Amino acid sequence: MKAIIYVRVSTKKEEQETSLARQEEELVKLAQQYDLQVVKIIREKESGYTIEREGILEMLDCIKEDNIEVVLIQDETRLGRGNAKIALMHCLRKEGVRVYTHSQNGELQLSDADSMVLDIISVVEEYQRKIHNLKIKRGMKRAVEHGYHPEENLKNRDMNGGREKKEVPIEEIVRLRGNKLTFAEIAATLRGFGYDVSKATVHRRYVEYTNEQNP
Question: Could you tell me the pLDDT band of residue 202, with boundaries at 50, 70 and 90?
Answer without folding.
Answer: confident
